[in-house]
Design goal:
alpha/beta, 14 strands
């Protein structure tokens, strides 16, 4: 559905994106991550035809974004970081106008009503956009992005600057949209990406430094093993003393106490079978073991590893 090969974008002599390549298949949900200034928004602007690449090839649904720009852009619904809204129009007028400039003269009123319902804007359809909260402006922006039933939906920081309640509702809306579209989502909210996207592209200093599922990235980057144990320790702090005597223990963190059981996170340098080694150690020292499980790297930890100097 999207094919990018050796694409670079320069602003003057400044390289915003450098020689990146990736493919996105129909129906995929992709999270685009990176620090501020990494090249995320520039990549999205090139993909949507908003700005031309300096070099390389970009194809959307088989159409070259430069040579067949109109055909390519017909496939795309785009929500930029700064939502382009006409604040002197009400929601319904704005969506009708956006539909008309896309050539949607036939059944436009029916489709406008559908997207208003889909984005929960029904009670605000006759309200001036200038009177809407930031969250409902974002919804109006999403409504215009899906108005023409695009096959590809590109959302740049869709929940930035809105209140927590609106974040949850907007996230749920995006999750539902991901069932019917190829979705590319840029976000600084890492749990948001985890909940919506099945594949992660990490951009750092204009280059792609990772392209995989969160689970596979975690396994690839795991230089130590983190385990969670739930135990009943007859002698106070006995378990901490026992574990700290072992060279393979990197760190021990007490998490919580519940019904006489204590939960700890244990980081080890063990590569093979850390669970069996730790469980044997605890049982040999007569510590009641209730639960032991391995913990993968969080997306935050993955992000920090990939983007640190």
């Amino acid at each position: 559905m999207i094919n990018i090969s050796k694409m670079s974008k320069y602003y003057g002599e400044y390289p915003a994106v450098i020689d990146i390549s990736f493919n996105i298949s129909k129906g995929e949900s992709i999270g685009l991550l990176g620090p501020n200034g990494a090249g995320k928004s520039t990549t999205m602007k090139v993909m949507t035809g908003f700005t031309p690449q300096t070099s390389g090839d970009v194809k959307i649904g088989g159409y070259d974004i430069l040579k067949n720009s109109i055909d390519a852009r017909k496939l795309i619904g785009y929500l930029p970081e700064s939502v382009p809204l006409y604040t002197d129009m009400n929601v319904k007028e704005y969506l009708r106008y956006m539909g008309s400039i896309r050539g949607m003269d036939k059944n436009i009123n029916k489709r406008v009503n559908e997207v208003i319902e889909l984005t929960s804007l029904s009670q605000y359809k006759d309200v001036l956009i200038s009177k809407l909260s930031k969250g409902y402006r974002q919804r109006a922006g999403i409504a215009q992005a899906i108005l023409h039933k695009p096959k590809i939906l590109i959302l740049d920081e869709p929940t930035i600057g809105i209140d927590p309640v609106q974040v949850v509702e907007t996230r749920k809306l995006i999750q539902n949209l991901g069932d019917d579209h190829t979705l590319i989502l840029s976000s600084h909210i890492l749990p948001e990406v985890t909940s919506i996207c099945k594949r992660i592209l990490v951009i750092h200093e204009g280059k792609i430094v990772a392209d995989d599922t969160p689970e596979k990235l975690s396994n690839r980057l795991q230089t130590s093993n983190l385990c969670e144990i739930k135990v009943r320790d007859g002698k106070k702090n006995n378990i901490i003393k026992i574990l700290r005597e072992k060279d393979f223990i990197v760190d021990i963190r007490s998490k919580e106490q519940d019904d006489g059981f204590e939960t700890y996170h244990i980081e080890t340098s063990l590569v093979n079978n850390p669970e069996s080694i730790i469980s044997k150690l605890l049982i040999d020292n007569k510590i009641e073991l209730h639960k032991l499980s391995s913990l993968p790297l969080t997306l935050e930890e993955i992000f920090l590893q990939l983007t640190k100097d």
